[in-house]
Amino acid sequence: MLTSISKIKINVLSMDTLHHRFQQFQKTIWFNIFCYLWTGIFSFLAFAPVSLTHFVWIAPFGFFWLSLKYHGKYKKLFFHGLLIGVVFYAISFHWIIHMAITFGNFPYVVAILILLFAGLLFGLKFPIFMMSFSFLSGKIGRHSVWVAGFCGLLSELIGPQLFPWYWGNLAAGNIILAQNAEITGVYGISFLVFIVSYTLFQSNPWHWKEIIHSKEKRKQYLRFVTLPALLLLTFIVSGIFLFKKWENVKPVKSLNVLIVQPDAPLSFRDGREIKESIEALMARIEKLTDEGAVRLGKKPDLIVLPEAGVPFFSAHKTEITTKVRRMYWDRFDSLMFLLANRYKANVFFNEIDAGFKGAPSPRNLRYYNNNVLYDPNGDRRDSYQKKFLLMFGEYMPFDFLYELSQQTGRFEPGLTHNLIRYYTPRYYTLAEKEKSPKGRHLGWTDTETFNHEAVRSYYETTRTEVSETGKFLPLICYEVILPEFVREFRTAGNPEFIVNLTNDKWYGATTESDQHMELGRLRSIELRRWMVRSTNSGISANIDHLGRFVGNKKQD
Fold first, then answer.
1. Are 62 and 39 spatial neighbours (Cβ–Cβ below 8 Å)?
2. What is the pLDDT of residues 10-54, one digit of tens each?
3. Residue 515 half-sphere exposure toward CB, CA atoms < 13 A
4. Which residue among 224, 345, 421, 522 is the one 20 to 30 A from 476 at the CA level?
């Protein structure tokens, strides 16, 4: 019997061979593209909605590789940093294309150019980091790990941003690390990201052989990693302590909050008459409120509608909104009044308001993105005008750009950082509490025959004394993702909770709504306040003081 034996030759590449090949690869233009994609892809994977947070620790490797390759060549570092910004925006913020088409009515080609422009301008934090890191690490070589943290922080502080995000947000998907935002803010977590990332970068496999076989190299390596490891351990221990501490802190009172997500249209381009579309919307708001109250199983204390939940109109009856610019709609005003009286609840909603900046004249007419609260009697109370306006959405940086985008608003920023007071009805007898108006509540369809004065008169007998219960922090849209801006409200007092009204419908079924919510989530941790997030279309949710979602998230 003959037996044939085949010899199988297996080539195992040594670590030295791999290192050599990688060094050769670094000399090619393909390596630069590899670095762009490395940072862009791993950053996206670490960010919402994918939220594979552990990838944030290796995402900055692309910066470090290019900083070493072009050390001291600042023009090249600037150029490659810009390209990383473009790739990052194309992968993570691709929804800008949808926004430009939907919001600005731009053609697809122009929308792509807007995305590229956004990556070049608002991705400047990347070349800022690479240039400053190359310069300072050359001057302070042996402390380069701390230089990485400093430069990462510097780039986030001075780099311009339209949609402000921070490396700390990517790491804050880890609920334990996120707790440190109470002490360090998001910037402290960003600092940690770059410290840990550079430590891992310098702990690459090419050095393992030397470290294993050389006692001196082992000592050097241990000296290098000890402080960064202690810093990471400090953040972990601190996060655990803060989590346990605040987990045991229970709210001193509770509110029944009803969030209405009406999916209001962005414009009236579907062939229906404006009157038909807007009336269908108002009927839907009433229906959703009634259905939500049934599911809640108890009387709501606060009914919240999102930004642009009723678009294009105002419920504020003034000479300007009724005569100068006819935005006031009494049926809008009446529906908010009816919802407040039907449930004896506070109603917090968004509207467009108007005023003059200076002397009354068409040239001085200004518009405001306004939030307002109606108390349980339906009386208009505190309002807040949006201060941080969205470029290209609510205003253009240059007047000639309005000709390119007719839909872009001409809004004026508000002037004050104020909290919103809310109220509780006071009943002295059971009969007073159960008193109802003339047999039945009025509905949306009744406002077609009842003007606003008649609606108010109908409920006159059910008016009751109300008392101020507390205050909350009102934030509109992107204001919630700006840590410095939110801190400016400290002078207004101590809010009990946060209410964020937003409209993510401009971005369609993209990752923007997840990213927007994730960026805003840290405000709950920083302030240790619960947040009510109401969006017209996207993700509405309740977030507790630990940054956790409470109950079900509503997403359309």
1. yes
2. 455 577 788 788 889 999 999 999 999 999 999 999 999 999 999
3. 24
4. 345
Kind and range of the H or E run holding 330: helix 330-343
The Cα-based distances of 483 to 43, 157, 178, 256 in angstroms read 21, 12, 14, 27
Token pair for residue 523?
Answer: 């405000």
Determine the Cα–Cα distance for residues 318 and 372; give it in Å rounded to an integer: 15
Partnered with residue 422 across adjacent β-strands are 470
> Is residue 493 left, alpha or beta, with left meaning phi > 0 and alpha meaning psi from -120 to 50?
left
Segment 430-486, tens digit of pLDDT: 566 666 677 789 999 999 999 999 999 999 989 999 999 999 999 999 999 999 999
Q: For residue 189, which amino acid is it?
A: I
β-strand 530-535 against 346-356: which pairing, if any? unpaired
Q: Taking the complete model, does pTM exceed 0.85, yes or no?
A: yes
Q: Which helix (H) or strand (E) holds 422?
A: strand 420-426
| Triad 513, 189, 129: Cα angle to 5° | 90
What is the Rg, in whole angstroms, of the alpha carbon atoms belonging to the chain? Answer: 28
* Integer Cα distance of 411 and 393 in angstroms: 9
State the DSSP H helix or E strand holding residue 209, giving kind and residue range, or none if neither: helix 208-213
Active-site residues, by number, are 307, 386, 477
Contact 178/547 with Cβ under 8 angstroms? Answer: yes
Q: What is the mean pLDDT of each run of 10 residues along the chain (556 residues)?
A: 48 70 92 98 96 97 96 97 97 92 84 94 96 92 87 95 92 97 97 97 78 79 92 98 95 92 76 77 96 92 96 93 91 97 96 88 86 98 93 71 66 92 82 69 94 95 94 96 93 94 86 93 96 93 95 63
Q: Which two tokens stand for residue 315?
A: 């419920």
CA dihedral 544, 547, 553, 556 (to 10 degrees): 130
Q: Which helix (H) or strand (E) holds 554?
A: strand 549-555
In the chain, DSSP finds a helix count (H) and a strand count (E) of 20, 11
The residue among 384, 360, 382 whose CA lies nearest residue 373 is: 382
Q: Widest CA span of the chain, in angstroms?
A: 110
**Cα(434)–Cα(457) distance, rounded to whole angstroms?**
19
Task: Put the strands of the sheet holding 420-426 in their side by side order.
Answer: 420-426, 465-476, 497-502, 530-535, 539-543, 549-555
